[in-house]
Recover the amino acids of this structure.
């Protein structure tokens, strides 16, 4: 096992730390579930309806999230031991297989496995090597080379869209330290909390809208091309300009937007993954 890019020497995780790793796995899994529990949100699966999806529902998403908890724990352990990208990727591929088994072949959380998994590894790394570092900065410094230069899923929807539209996609986002989380979604989540004190669901909607308004969501591009991305951004930007969740009828406005997305078969799944990851980052701060 090679040492991390920083000057620290990798050391084994003590047996007692297994509880912490299990907690990390449960927290990451719960953040995925919280994203599903969020409503209203444009085009996405929730506990209320299936959004623009014919093959997914909330129960399936919950099963998928639950199946991933032990793998997020493994990734935390790997990060605490200074693992490099090949080892993290091996655990991630095992997580994908577990997810597919839990969902009977439906890809519910492949993108989240990649991003959330790296954040869990960074949480483990931080425990041992760098108590003051942010998770995003650790991912960028320790694993950026492996992220950009590694082998990905070349036939995934995201990979196909990135090639077609010349985008960096999830890999660039991770290698850059998740700027969509730290510069966009996390400030919006805090803003939403101030606009609707005590309403965590409203804050999550506010953060999601900020993501939709700014991120090149490959799920939107795959389903509807550049026109779909433009439509989604305009809808979310308009909502935020009107005050976001601070406006009196915010919920009705988002429900109407949700219906418009469903009618066009649009689902900003990449933004949904980033929302779950933002919730994790907030809890780990």
């Amino acid at each position: 096992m090679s040492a991390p890019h920083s000057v620290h020497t990798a050391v084994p995780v003590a047996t007692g730390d297994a509880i912490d790793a299990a907690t990390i796995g449960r927290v990451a899994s719960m953040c995925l579930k919280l994203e599903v529990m969020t409503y209203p949100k444009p085009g996405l699966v929730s506990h209320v309806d299936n959004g623009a999806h014919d093959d997914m529902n909330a129960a399936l998403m919950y099963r998928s999230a639950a199946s991933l908890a032990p793998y997020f724990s493994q990734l935390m352990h790997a990060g605490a031991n200074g693992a490099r990208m090949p080892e993290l990727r091996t655990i991630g591929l095992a997580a994908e297989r577990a997810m597919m088994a839990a969902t009977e072949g439906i890809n519910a959380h492949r993108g989240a496995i990649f991003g959330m998994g790296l954040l869990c590894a960074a949480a483990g790394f931080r425990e041992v090597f760098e108590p003051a570092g942010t998770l995003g900065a650790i991912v960028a410094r320790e694993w950026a080379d492996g992220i950009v230069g590694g082998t990905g899923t070349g036939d995934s929807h995201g990979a196909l869209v990135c090639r077609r539209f010349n985008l960096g996609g999830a890999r660039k986002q991770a290698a850059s330290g998740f700027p969509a989380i730290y510069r966009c979604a996390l400030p919006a989540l805090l803003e939403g909390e101030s606009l609707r004190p005590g309403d965590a669901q409203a804050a999550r909607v506010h953060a999601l809208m900020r993501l939709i308004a700014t991120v090149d969501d490959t799920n939107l591009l795959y389903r509807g091309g550049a026109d779909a991305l433009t439509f989604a951004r305009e809808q979310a930007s308009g909502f935020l300009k009107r005050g976001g969740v601070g406006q009196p009828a915010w919920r009705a406005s988002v429900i109407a937007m949700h219906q418009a997305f469903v009618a066009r078969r649009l689902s900003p799944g990449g933004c949904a993954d980033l929302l779950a990851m933002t919730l994790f980052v907030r809890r780990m701060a």
Remarks:
- Confidence is low (pLDDT under 50) at residues 1-19.
- The radius of gyration is 18 Å.
- Residues 72 and 117 are 6 Å apart (CA to CA).
- The chain is about 70% helix and 0% strand.
